[in-house]
């Protein structure tokens, strides 16, 4: 130890593995870790679809970050201020002001959640024969587009379909693809360009402001609106601040406004960035479109000043919007996801790179190389994670992609992922370590799982929510399967292409 007044250099502080959260816990919800036997029985009863499990039988729930975040004390306080007047409540005007101030759209229409906003927008703008380009599909968005007679076209950069391509903005639009679609079908057949910030199905990949500006210029020349999926636009703003030259000195709030300035409207699931358990909105600049949308909201959601939300929900959303752009809040959010990714990737587990802001996505085809695509490796891996440690994750591969509406054949997207989606402010670093340990443990045993699952029940719409499956063999991770095949003899991994 140096003597007082000594000029000897001091020891540098130890590297912090994970920075402390900018909040402390005031209320807790007990969790119970079930036994392997309980989990095996529960999963079989749920038809090997973790989405059909009772939540009380899930230990760490990473199924979604939608509506599962922890609200702050100020949000709960705002709930008590809710004005439940049917028309023109005080809470609506606070909500409207928050959206206008932080996102910049003048016409603000509340809906009960994001997919309701998607439905209203699609009913307003899409007609049979229309074509909607976007930077990769999302399940509910494409479903609404197709139900109204439209056809979705993926115009994202090719690298977004490669889980190993480590580029800073894999959510960017390929301008050549977009121009080619316009030339082919005609601008009059494109009601709008659908842009996600960030791109969920690619693992939470952001779009750059430079690319968004180029899209805006191209669409302006052709008179095509741009509609933003703003559910995780705050996370996108954070990545712009970290990765895009010229923006490091700007606040997340300023970057969020700039993103929105380059678009004509947005759909929003406030259950993501805004921390609430329910709520959403549709916002546009065109007063005529807003009037059309309000008329439909009255039919399907409720009066245009509550849109399916109680006054207390409107208050919670307004407060959540303000909290979402706080620098410490979004930094902690993204760094928790990065911590989990680093632990998993450090053990050699194949994941999507770069890591997004809301989830770590496991590359299921690389994780389970012996499970054929037609046996749904991502769905299989979600089951294995639950059986191993009671962790619920989400399949984002062929099951989520559904069937081609024309041919009826399964769609097999390039990305076959298992999404470990982190609710905001809900789990600790200890929970992340439990998840990482389970993923690594399964990866070390991956050769024991050489076959997947098949459908026993398949809904026609958004099948991943309510489908049921059965395992195709008695692999050690699944246990005995009545009527199943014997485990397959594994080929040499070098022979697998």
From TrEMBL:
Name the source's superkingdom.
Bacteria
The record's InterPro entries line, in alphabetical order, gives: ArAA_b-elim_lyase/Thr_aldolase, Beta-eliminating_lyase, PyrdxlP-dep_Trfase, PyrdxlP-dep_Trfase_major, PyrdxlP-dep_Trfase_small
The entry's keywords: Lyase, Pyridoxal phosphate
Is Ion transport tagged as a keyword? no
Family matches, as Pfam families: Beta_elim_lyase
Q: Which GO terms describe its molecular function?
A: tryptophanase activity
| Region Disordered, annotated ranges | 1-21
Q: Does the keyword Lipid biosynthesis apply?
A: no
PANTHER family assigned to the protein according to its UniProt record, in alphabetical order = BETA-ELIMINATING LYASE-LIKE PROTEIN-RELATED, TRYPTOPHANASE
User: Cross-referenced NCBIfam families, in alphabetical order?
Assistant: PRK13238.1
Spell out the protein name for this chain.
Tryptophanase
Q: What is the lineage of its organism?
A: Bacteria, Bacillati, Actinomycetota, Actinomycetes, Kitasatosporales
